[in-house]
Every structure is written in structure tokens, then in C-alpha cells.
Amino acid sequence: MDPNSKKVTKEDKKDYAIETLCVQAGYSPASGEPRILPIYQSTTYKYDSTDDVGALFDLTKEGHMYSRISNPTVAAVEAKIAALEGGTGALCCSSGMSAVLISVLNITSAGQNILASQSIYGGSVNLLGVTLSRFGIETRFFSQDMTDDEILSMADENTRLIFGETLSNPNLDVFDIERFASLAHGIGVPLIVDNTFPTPVNCRPFEFGADIVVHSTTKYMDGHAAVLGGAIVDGGVFDWSCGRYPELTEPDESYHGIAYVSAFGNSMAYIVKARVQLMRDFGAIMQATSAFLLNLGLETLCLRVERHCANALKVASFLEQHEKVEKVSAPALPSDPRHALAEKYMPKGTCGVISFTVKGGREGAVRFMDSLKLASIVVHVADARTCVLNPAGTTHRQLTDEQLAAANIPAGLVRLSVGIENADDIIADLSAALEKV
Questions:
Q1: The pTM is what?
Q2: Digit-coded pLDDT (tens) for 105-161
Q3: What integer best gives the mean pLDDT of the chain?
Q4: What secondary structure, in 3-state letters, does the chain show?
Q5: pLDDT at 1
Q6: What is the arithmetic mean of pLDDT over 195-212?
Q7: Contact 220, 196 (CB under 8 A)
Q8: pLDDT for residue 6 is more than 60
């Protein structure tokens, strides 16, 4: 039991379809209570006795003691996200990056290492490969094209986890979850998967062997570019008592000497520790108002994801045939070499993000983007509105064309996040802009 967060209840775990869970899970008002999830805008909570508050700090009683640990609004959204992913518990964070950070640091310390796919989001590469290295944690990046033996040769007794993304940003590489879950479990470590782009609507990593799932809820879960957020979801099945994770099995002197596995079992030990130890210390909390806005986005997640995917497939098919486009990267396309793997893990669709290379290199991409009328140039994806970005002209602007090629980012690459507008209007906008290239 996790006394400091709203658990996934029997009501949340009914055999409802995911469309129903998006709307109904997490918050169930009693008679006379608000129908819509309220915003509990309070940092603290009142108790009837010192014994009551003491029991909260001992983690033997359900409730909230301080909003840096838990908050009723946030807890309801955590329960909804856990239900959507099929996990046992969740922890909402202030951003996707803080979710990645806490998910790793929860079971990793100085002198240890992790294995991570080299095609993950650039911000995650910097966090894992640069920032964590300053604190003595090494990240060993592997290519998904490497053989199992080559990847396993990178691991040792200090390896703590394997990390990947279901769909990478921006190259849209498809992560073979079953393969890497098997590799991780073969060496006794968990698999952490970032499921931001497909969302649980299109991909359920736990069903393929993943142990922990993380999200940037800023993207499709919010869906309106309104609020930053992140989430960590515990699958509840990894055996933390395997002998490699003393931080979960031995007394935590920073929290009354509690041993998390003994107190909460394998099903909740990881997520409880992340909350009462790391969130307590880092304070990277999701605010109540942010959780309220996120919940509104989650209620329409299934509808929006379906429309994003349908529009993106139409747009990708158009771009694939256009003479001004050199290459289209969209695993939903039957012609994409990753299509079969995408069909295995995401049979209902991938996401609304595609990338393509415009002829004329960086100059061609800039001319194309500056000619768009409907689509906006923004540093964001997964918005209800169609948006574009040229990495060579923005996030990787300092690199030469040769350096961009070495990083597998063509100078003419455009990351296109297809929105939920009418697909014909989007295509007309892209077509008119391509004529200017």
C-alpha cells in the first residue's frame, strides 16, 4: 500500500476499454461531491491529532501530509495514468525530464552504469550521458542494430537498467520492447521505456515485458501545449529482492529505516521510494493546477490520438510522393523499413509526428518552413495544432552540414507534428510551401 498517493482502485482496474478509462479513471465523486476533479490548491493539510499525522509519516495510513509528497488533485491524475498503462502506481513530476531523472536515480548511484539506446530524445541523451556522468553514473549507449551479444558485452555487475523509447524523437526509431526486456531480465535488471509518443492508447509496454514506463505528459497527454509535466509508472512485477537493489530491500536511514520491499512488496516498492525519498528531496512536483489541466487533456486523449495518427498517415503518404521531398520517416507507412515492428507494438497507429528531408538542405528546409501559413514553427510536438521544426536551424544550429550528417540529422530534416485540423487543409499548406523550395 502507498499511503501517500491515490492507488489504482478496483473501480479503476475494471475491464473498461481505454477510452472509458481516459474519462472515468482516477476520480470517482461520492454523492454531492463535485463531478469534475477539483483543484486542491493547498500546500498542507489539517489533522485531528498528532497520532494521525505521525501515522502518515510512518506510511501506515492513507492520506496527504504535504503537497511536495502528494496532493489530492495530482493523486487522482496519477491513478488515471497508472490505470491507462496497466501499472500498479504512478508518480507525476514537473516535467518529462524530471520523470526520466527520478526513474533512473531511484535505483542508480555513483559508480554504477546504465545501458541506453543512442536514438533517444536529445535531451535525454544529454541528461544521461553528460549530466549524470558528473555525478559518477555512466551511460553506455548502444545501437539497436547491434547484436544481443554486442549489447550484453557492455553490461557488467554494476549495470542497473536498460533504457529506451517506444518511438524515438525525432528519428522515430521503433524500440523492440520484447527483445530488450529479455536482455534486461537476462542480466537481472529492469527495462525502463519512455512511451511519450505512442501513449498508452497505441502502445502498452508492460504487456511486452517493460518494468517501468515514463512519460513527458507535456506532449500528447496534455495535447494543447498548455502545461509541462511528466509521469513515472510502476509495472509492479520486477523482483527487486533479486539481490542487486539494496536501496529497495535494506533499511532507508533517510526514512525511519523503512525497507520498501518488505513494507510494500515488489508491486509498489519502486514507486513508493521514488515518492517519499526522491520527490521529497528534489521537489520536482506537479502542481495541482497543472494536474487539473492535464486531466482535461487525458479525457480526450483517445479521440485526439486517433485523429493525429490518421492525419499523419495521410500527410506522410502525400510527402512520400512529392518531388521536393528526399525521404520520409514514418513507421506507419507500409514502405517504411520499421513498419513491421511498429505493427507489432502499435497496431492501432504510431503517433502524429513524422520527419522528412526537403531537397536543398538547410536552405530548402528554412524556405519551406517560412512559407507555411497554417503550420507553426515552434519548439514542441504533439500539439492539437500542426507544428514544424528544423533541427539544423534550431536545436543543432551550431553544427556544420558535415557534423549534422555524422549525427544522422540531415540539414534539410523537418520534424512535423501533424495536428488534428482537417487533413486536406494541412496537406494544402504543405504543398504550397513546398512549391517555394
A1: 0.94
A2: 999 999 999 999 998 988 898 899 999 999 999 999 999 999 999 999 999 999 999
A3: 93
A4: CCCCCCCCCCCCCCCCCHHHHHHHCCCCCCCCCCCCCCCCCCCECCCCCHHHHHHHHCCCCCCCCECCCCCHHHHHHHHHHHHHHCCCEEEEECCHHHHHHHHHHCCCCCCCEEEEECCCCHHHHHHHHHHHHHHCCEEEEECCCCCHHHHHCCCCCCEEEEEEECECCCCCCECCHHHHHHHHHHCCCCEEEECCCCHHHHCCHHHHCCCEEEEECCCCCCCCCCCCCEEEEECCCCCHHHCCCHHHHCCECCCCCECHHHHHHHHHHHHHHHHHHHHHHHCCECCHHHHHHHHHHHHCHHHHHHHHHHHHHHHHHHHHCCCCEEEEECCCCCCCCCHHHHHHHCCCCCCCEEEEEECCHHHHHHHHHHCCCCCEECCCCCCCCCEEECHHHCCCCCCCHHHHHHCCCCCCEEEEECCCCCHHHHHHHHHHHHCCC
A5: 40
A6: 98
A7: yes
A8: no
Q: Which amino acid is at 28?
A: S
- What residue has cell string 502506481? 89
